[in-house]
Amino acid sequence: MLKQIKIAFLMLSTAMLTACGFQLQNGELIPKELQTLKFETSDPYSDMSVAMRRQLQLNNIQLVEQANVPVLRINKTRADDQVASVFKQGREAEKMLILEVEASVKLPNKDAYPISAKINRTFFDNSRAALAKSAEREMIWSDMREQAARQLISKMVALQHQVKAN
To answer: Does the pTM of the predicted model rise above 0.90?
Structure first.
C-alpha cells in the first residue's frame, strides 16, 4: 500500500512539472546592455574561443564588430594536468585536469573589469585503453571549455549588476 502511494505521488509530481511549462531560460537574465557585445581574443579559432562564441550565441547575445558596445576579451587560457594518484607499479593512475581562463569586460566609457574561471576535473588514465582514453580526455576538455564559458557569462552578468550598484 505504501509503495503504491509513493509511485502515485511520483507520477503526480512528474505530471505536474511537465504540465506547468517549466523551461530553462536562455539569455533571459542577461541585461539589455550586454545583449550586444564585441568579442575579442588573440586566437579567434582556438577551442576556447569557439566554445565562448557558442555559449554567447546560446544565450542570445549578438556579436558585433562595431565600437561603443561592451567588449568581452579572452586574455589568457591555461590548460594543465597534474598527477593525482599512481598505481602500485609507479605509473600514473589518475590526473587532475585544470583549465584556467582569464578574461576582461570593458563597458563603454568605463574601465575594464577582470573576470576568470577555473575548472578542475579528474581523469582516470588507463594505459591499456589508450585510444579510448584519448577520446574521453578530449571530451572532458571540451566539456570543461563549455563550463568555463558559462561561468564567464555568469560572472559578466554579475559584474554588470555590481557596476550598476556603484
So the answer is: no
